[in-house]
Amino acid sequence: MASRKDTLVRRANRVRRQIKAVANGRPRLSVHRSSKNIYVQVIDDVAGKTLASASTLDTDLRSSLKTGADAAAAAAVGKLIAERAVKAGVKDVVFDRGAFIYHGRIKALAEAAREGGLNF
């Protein structure tokens, strides 16, 4: 029987494989959620480079957040990544939720990024 970690890795790989098939050269907005923080990167898979990143550990966000593990923190990170990506010249991305379901903090981050100017 597969362990929980193996299941999550398989799910994340399945999502990434589907995303790369429909990306058409668009950068990937990759999200990682831990129990205490949330991290997001805009990655150009063709060049293999990170174009922009944000997390609840950023100094400008950390002081204004009560905790890094709630939907409000995820929304703040979503707005920050949208601002940084637009500044880097990226408007259109594909959303990579990894092994996480589109619910709660992941959904809050995605909606805030859309409001901030990213298209996906």
Automatic annotation (TrEMBL):
| Name of the molecule in the record | Large ribosomal subunit protein uL18
HAMAP family from the UniProt entry:
Ribosomal_uL18_B
General function of this protein:
This is one of the proteins that bind and probably mediate the attachment of the 5S RNA into the large ribosomal subunit, where it forms part of the central protuberance.
UniProt xrefs under InterPro entries: Ribosomal_L18, Ribosomal_uL18_bac-type, Ribosomal_uL18_bac/plant/anim
Keyword Ribosomal protein found: yes
Source superkingdom: Bacteria
What is a single molecular function from GO for this protein? structural constituent of ribosome
The GO biological-process annotations, alphabetized, read as: translation
Annotated Gene Ontology cellular components are: cytosolic large ribosomal subunit
Identify its protein family: Belongs to the universal ribosomal protein uL18 family.
